[in-house]
């Protein structure tokens, strides 16, 4: 048996550091106590509800419960993928999400960069307050305002068009305009609120970097390109990766309020489909399967995007 310098077994020499390590855990017990509410939140509201995923593989009946419901395997997934309008719904969801990535996602970044250039603090705070307000307006109110502005009968815009000698334009019933209208509403409502994270990131930029850029002869655009954008690049990548995780979530309430029979071909998405089949049709197992499919797609995209971000030298989410 191996012994240390004074003849004791080697295991005894390693016992003391291990004991000190365990004791050190209890030194900061108050910090671990602060972690308990967050841990309980994720346990109760994030992990325990995942038990409900089981009903995606059952013919779930509320009267029989999860335990006694009949197992059917991948039956509901087969039904989903063989549904005649599956690819139409999938395409509509992907296209709207793609439009959001192209037009909505950069909007808070652009607004943050513009606000960062303002030097009058009073005016800057006023603008921030104004662009934050739409976030607190519900989608019901936003949809109502849209109908009042763009409605064919009595809409303000169409009334002005008629007053000038033109004909009313069917803004809300034209399929080609529906997706653009949805994205425009999202930008108006949420772009200002999204600037909070980017403005917080911009406060961490070292002012000496701007001073050095000015000494080198860089103008405002050069400072923006070589100092400001690189400073928030990691934040942009992280939020983009998280956004990809919700690529199949386009917002049920928003779409449902704006959807009508004339634009179903371009506006029917997974959320509205789940509403019809799950809540109206009572197919709980089938709609759970749809939700699980969306979650798996989001997980794959997050893992893939995070891997690519690290390959290009960015931090990533994990």
DSSP strand content: under 5%
The fold-level CATH name of the largest domain is MetI-like fold
The shape, in one word, is flat
- Provide the low-confidence segments as ranges: none
Number of helices: 16
Helix content: over 70%
Provide mean pLDDT, rounded: 87
| SSE run | HHEHEHHHHHHHHHHHHH
Count of β-strands: 2
Report on this model:
The chain has 2 domains: 10-50, no CATH class; 86-137 and 178-311, MetI-like (MetI-like fold), CATH 1.10.3720.10. Helices cover 70% and strands 1% of the residues. It has 16 helices and 2 strands. Strands 1-2 form a two-stranded antiparallel sheet. α5 crosses α10, α10 (175-202) packs across α12 and α12 packs antiparallel against α16 (284-311). The mean pLDDT is 87. Belongs to the binding-protein-dependent transport system permease family. Residues 90-305 form the ABC transmembrane type-1 domain. Pfam families: BPD_transp_1. The chain crosses the membrane at residues 29-48, 94-114, 126-150, 286-309.
